[in-house]
Specification:
disordered C terminus, 6-stranded mixed beta sheet, Aminopeptidase, binds zinc ion
Length: 232
């Protein structure tokens, strides 16, 4: 026979177990992936970090410290990938031929292509934002990406120019080649040194966020259509 104290104890244990189960259930619900549809569902964004693989691209200096365009391009891609949902991007192989890079993006079933570059000039004061396109579908895509970069970096807007340097010439997927700022500009170069030293609000993060915002707007406006699509 259980006494009053034992009964109280057992009832308290059961109550606590019920509470534990309820908490576990709640924790499980919260841990499950959110299945809400996003505009990125089923999309593949080809991300081309310009140059690399032994090719520097433009080279700038911050107080004698060398800043290499290929490193900046890579860093922007790295930051953008942190923002994009898992499985929605393809890293374009850093092949020496631009035609081969585009083929790599197309073979991966990409819906769009961003070729990330940064500009260079012998004038260390030069600094502006420019994008390059070729085809009509590039222009539409760029009209979502380019203005976001302009408003994020607040540099002079040199516009969207016709000439994709190969990256938007080959293939047919909507693409844009971005030259968001000049690595040869002293401010631009020093900003990248800041990034490498762990500063969290440099041009690199701002540019990546701008590209993310542009992609989100593009796919929101083009749901079910646009691009070659990856309907599998
Ligand atoms: Zn470049």
């Amino acid at each position: 026979m259980m006494g009053a104290i034992e009964r109280l104890l057992v009832s308290s244990i059961i109550k606590n177990m019920k509470k534990t189960i309820a908490i576990l259930g709640l924790a499980l619900m919260m841990a499950l992936p959110v299945s809400a549809a996003t505009p990125f569902d089923g999309k593949i964004i080809a991300l081309d970090a310009g140059h690399g693989n032994g090719e520097t691209g433009a080279v700038g200096y911050c107080n004698g410290v060398e800043v290499i365009e290929a490193d900046v391009n890579w860093a922007v891609r790295f930051e953008l990938e942190k923002l994009l949902p898992v499985g929605t991007y393809h890293e374009v192989e850093q092949l020496s031929s631009r035609q081969d890079r585009v083929a790599d993006a197309e073979n991966a079933g990409s819906d769009v292509l961003i070729s990330i570059h940064h500009n260079g000039s012998s004038n260390t004061g030069a600094d502006y934002t420019q994008s390059f396109v070729t085809q009509k579908n590039d222009k539409i895509f760029a009209s979502y990406i380019h203005p976001e970069i302009v408003s994020a970096l607040v540099l002079r807007d040199a516009g969207i120019k016709n000439d994709g340097y190969g990256m938007t010439v080959y293939g047919s997927l909507p693409g844009v080649l971005t030259e968001s700022y000049f690595v040869t500009n002293t401010d631009g170069a020093c900003d990248f040194v800041d990034y490498q030293n762990g500063v969290t609000n440099t041009r690199v993060q701002k540019e990546a966020q701008a590209m993310y915002d542009g992609l989100l707007a593009y796919f929101t406006a083009n749901t079910g259509g646009g691009g070659k699509g990856r309907n599998r």
